[in-house]
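Tokens for chain A. Residues wanted.
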């Protein structure tokens, strides 16, 4: 069993296709198939269900995948640790919520790329719950999420504090809470902590929770609000540039308004020079 076969299995599991995995790895398809078959023979169990032109993980394959992720992660850390040069290089995958990715990270990523062009920097964008799962499964080196997380296998560092606002369609009339309670509460993803803060305020003040409507993307949510379909709750940093358009912002009452953003990573992960420089750029000095 060699490290390349493990990388091939991981690529097939992600792509759910031997053909696509071969293209991604720049291998011939027969080489990928042979490596998977050899791995299955060595382990003595089938790892893939094969049907039509797609594949799916067997129970054994699903159990093996997170362990392979950890093995590959540890292998990359070992290579990084013994390199003679201290200049950051290799890969660095950073996770972030859409709110942070769209407002905070463009400048940070641009500065990092300028300083350390040898690092292959990538972004994994997903809600907080998925980011935590990615960190625990070694799929990302670190992530910006809504805090606190308070998980025993995760270390977290405070980095930002977001101020939440209720966003409604612009109106010259004074805002009346009762006018929006029967409208949809729009979200670009499930389990949004921002909407949760607003729903909690409603409940604590004797109002029924608003009905939530998921609308795919943040841009789609804001366009819906502009056109009179519902309201949403977001950090003010995400909509400040749009206040000249058809939107109005109403700050959430304290203590529901402030939401901390923290940077998380696995407690047992090795801090590569690439990640160390990224943390310094963000302003995190204690590790």
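Reply:
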């Amino acid at each position: 069993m060699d490290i390349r076969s493990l990388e091939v299995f991981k690529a097939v599991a992600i792509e759910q296709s031997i053909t696509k995995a071969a293209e991604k790895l720049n291998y011939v398809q027969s080489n990928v198939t042979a490596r998977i078959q050899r791995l299955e023979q060595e382990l003595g169990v089938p790892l893939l269900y094969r049907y039509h032109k797609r594949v799916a993980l067997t129970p054994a394959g699903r159990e093996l995948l997170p362990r392979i992720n950890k093995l590959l992660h540890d292998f990359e850390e070992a290579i990084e640790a013994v390199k003679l040069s201290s200049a950051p290089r290799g890969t660095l995958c950073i996770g972030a919520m859409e709110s942070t990715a769209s407002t905070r990270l463009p400048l940070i990523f641009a500065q990092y790329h300028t300083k350390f062009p040898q690092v292959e920097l990538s972004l994994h964008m997903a809600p907080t719950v998925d980011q935590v799962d990615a960190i625990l499964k070694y799929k990302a080196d670190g992530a910006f999420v809504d805090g606190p997380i308070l998980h025993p296998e995760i270390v977290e560092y405070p980095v930002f504090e977001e101020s939440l606002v209720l966003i409604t369609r612009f109106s010259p009339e004074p805002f009346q809470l009762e006018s929006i309670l029967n409208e949809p509460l729009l979200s670009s993803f499930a389990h949004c902590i921002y909407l949760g803060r607003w729903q909690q305020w409603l409940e604590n003040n004797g109002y029924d929770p608003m009905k939530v409507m998921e609308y795919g993307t943040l841009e789609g949510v804001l366009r819906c609000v502009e056109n009179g379909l519902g309201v949403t709750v977001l950090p003010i940093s995400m909509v400040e540039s749009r206040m000249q358009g058809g939107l109005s912002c109403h700050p959430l009452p304290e203590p529901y308004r402030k939401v901390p953003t923290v940077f998380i990573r696995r407690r047992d992960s090795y801090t590569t020079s690439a990640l160390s420089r990224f943390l310094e750029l963000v302003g995190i000095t204690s590790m």
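The chain has ten helices and eleven strands. Residues 59-82 form the longest helix (24 residues).
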